[in-house]
Amino acid sequence: AEIKASWIGRTVIHSNHRFTYEEVQETIEKGEGLHSRDILVLNGMAQAMRKKRIGAGAINFSSREVRFKLDENAIPIGIEIKESKEAHQLVEEMMLLANKTVAEYASKIRVNHQPIPFPYRIHDVPDDEKLKMFAAFAAKFGYKFDVSSPEGIAHSFNQMLQKVKDMPEQLVLEQLGIRTMSKAVYSTDNIGHYGLGFANYCHFTSPIRRYPDV
Q: Per DSSP, which regions of 6-158 are E strands?
């Protein structure tokens, strides 16, 4: 999953097929289907990038989304939890790669020896007080936190998120953990994105993204 070369310029996307996440997930699980070879290659890359990113200090929060079930008249008749699977992760990792690549490119541009103003997506380290309160709460469930450094905090979060999976306290610790984090914001002052473990990040892939923030 090492980038051999990159190119940035004006592009037009010609879409040959529109997949749903469920269709792609089925192809990944069965290893066959429309464009299966391409999907499986991309998925292998995505999983390698994800493993590398989390190993480098990215925090692996899994967000849960709700989907409404509708009847034939489009009336809501129930809700279900959408689980994040490899198909979702494939799109996520490729999106992160595009965003990171553009932000890295922009960060190197200089005009009159000055960096250009650019809307980075930044994320600061957690607030000390919030973190201490969360660590004390998590300790009641037997989870220990190393709060001595940003790297230690990220590692502790990932360890906890791995151990808490399918446990009764999973939902409350995940939700409180997310609230312990600083809020990500747009800024021309590039301090990096702590949660993703990126020194440079932006929302370049943004047609459906964060409209209220903009």
A: 65-70, 76-82, 110-111, 114-115, 120-122
User: How far is 210 from 197, CA to CA, in rounded Å?
Assistant: 20
DSSP secondary structure letters along 74-97:
S-EEEEEEEP--HHHHHHHHHHHH
Residues 6+ apart with CB under 8 A from 151: 57
Q: Rounded to whole angstroms, how far apart are CA atoms 24 and 87?
A: 6
Judged against a pLDDT cut of 80, whether residue 208 lies above it is answered with no
3-state helix, strand, coil in the chain (%, to 5): 40, 15, 45
Q: What pLDDT, on a 0 to 100 scale, did the predictor assign at position 26? A: 96
Q: CB atoms < 10 A from the CB of 164, how many?
A: 19
**If you ran DSSP here, which 8-state letter would residue 124 be given?**
P
Q: Which amino acid is at 33?
A: G
- Report how far residue 207's alpha carbon sits from residue 15's, in angstroms, rounded to the nearest whole number: 16
Q: Report the alpha-carbon distance of residue 35 to residue 172 in Å, rounded.
A: 40
Contact by Cβ (8 Å): 189, 196:
no
Q: Which of 54-68, 69-83, 196-210 has the highest mean pLDDT?
A: 69-83
pLDDT tens by residue, 1-31:
888 999 998 888 888 899 999 999 999 999 9
Q: What are 161-178's pLDDT values in tens digits?
A: 888 888 888 888 888 888
Tell how far CA 25 is from the center of its chain: 18
